[in-house]
Amino acid sequence: MTGPLLLAIDQGTSSTKCLVIDKSGSVVARGQTAVGLSTPQPGWVEQDGLAIWASVQQAVAVAVTADLAPHVIGIGLSTQRESCVIWDRQSGAPLTPVLSWQDQRTDALCAGLHTGGHGAMVRVRSGLPLDPMFSAAKISWLLNQIDPDRSRAAKGDICVGTIDSFLLSRFGGPHVVEAGNASRMQLMNVARGAYDQDLLDLFRIPAACLPQIVPSIGPFQAARDLAPLPDGVPILAVLADSHAALFAHGAFAPGPVKATHGTGSSVMGLLDRAATQDGSSLHPGLCVTLAWWTDQPYLAFEGNIRSAGSTLVWAADLLGVSLDQLAGLAATVDTASKIHLVPGFNGLGAPWWDAEAVATLSGFTIGSGRAPVARAALDSIAHQIADLVEAVSASGVTVDRLHVDGGPTRNNQLMQFEADMIGLPVHRAETAELSALGAAHLAGHAAGLFSLEQLKTLARNGTTFLPALPMAEREQCRRAWKTAVGRSLAPHNR
Question: Is the pTM of this model over 0.85?
Fold first, then answer.
């Protein structure tokens, strides 16, 4: 292999994936390493920071052979969002576990802030609702454990950061965070692209422990300790994973909307800069987030689903089958299941934002078998996506097609049902690793390999699923789903 190559590292919730791409945008090598989760108490979800770092090193070693290594001119990094950790500034050693974006231990803290009347201010300043998903409450909780009086944080002896910030810290250099990831911390004024002192005060987080917010194209410290890559390969771009997938779809302007299907799911599209960007015109179940910062900050609307692929994993474990067998069972049910699984395992995200919601399985009888339950698990993903598409449309944002990516999208039955439930074409990308690809594309743009025009016109092969269900049947399915969601919501949110 000759010619310049780019390495994309996508550090996700359950695995770290790597792609090596050439100057035409073609994937020439791949690597992947699993990452574990622990749940020490109900609602608690943790990871090990050093295990995440080791997974990055291992995935790079698989993807980058000794022959390829000399030709890698730069790295693009994509990471899971909202998850956060604290480490020692001098040694770099983690001082806490990584609190996953799925972790719900700060529910009481968020509820207390809501009761105190802070919800509206937090929403307007950060673009995000008060919810345990976001980093601010997690950081406050972690500081309460290791630095209750905030003395170490105030002196800057400890570093707080999201996963991108933690991984970048392994390379040395300044303590930084990419702007899109920073926007998910709930400490940034989304309109200004800078930390908001009122938010820092509310969550009792000293500015001295926080990373500097930098654009998505840096500057970043060059990489090291990623053998067989030589030390000094530049980090050219960093993006949050969902944002990277939007970039990979070529959605550089308002209009296209994408839905990433992973452990959870994200529905996202850029906001028109001429429109209101503080979120006041959006459905209250949607967030405003910073998609990326290149020549300028680009804002996006987003809806976050907590359980998508993880619902399939749970259902497969419950039924004692593999994921492939679960899909096979679901395929034997050729119409929408009358059984509904609402996956409120850790509450429900957008558009409901109900941390007290519970998981429910309803509509079954003594004669119900495993197949309808499997189908209900699959259908729950499509219904949640439809909930968000409806919220986007209710905000006056035009959606003419949905671009999808992620592991669960390989299931044709799910994709067809999704098209049926939203009543729009669903286009599935041929390449599953869209987050990694988006990071590579932005890195290539930063390196001068691709112009934005070239990236717009890259071949994006895939499969399009067209709605086939009559309108009356679709509306009946959607009403039944919303009835099931009503059973899941906390009584005061119904």
Answer: yes
